[in-house]
Known about the structure:
The structure is a single chain. The protein is α+β, with helices and mostly antiparallel strands. Helix content is about 25%, strand content about 20%. Strands 1, 2, 3, 4 and 5 form a five-stranded antiparallel β-sheet that branches. The termini are far apart.
Amino acid sequence: EDGLNRTKKTDVVLYRKLSHPVNSSSDYFVNMILESVNGIPVGELKDLKKILKESKDKYLRLKFLDIQVPLILNREEAEKADEKIRKIYGLE
């Protein structure tokens, strides 16, 4: 247990935002600990990658620790924006 009544070994934190219209509503969540996506717990970064890769839901519902309101992203729009964001910020 980590002192917060959790047994996770690591946390996934939305550390920085690469600005794009698709994520314009995410400012509030920067530096917050991601708990789950679409109800699936995120224990480490590889969990997040797997959830995003396998998701077929229309929306991605990102729940953060101790935050009542989730960040909701349109999955298809986020996937389309990913390529543009990678080019803009030189992440290819």
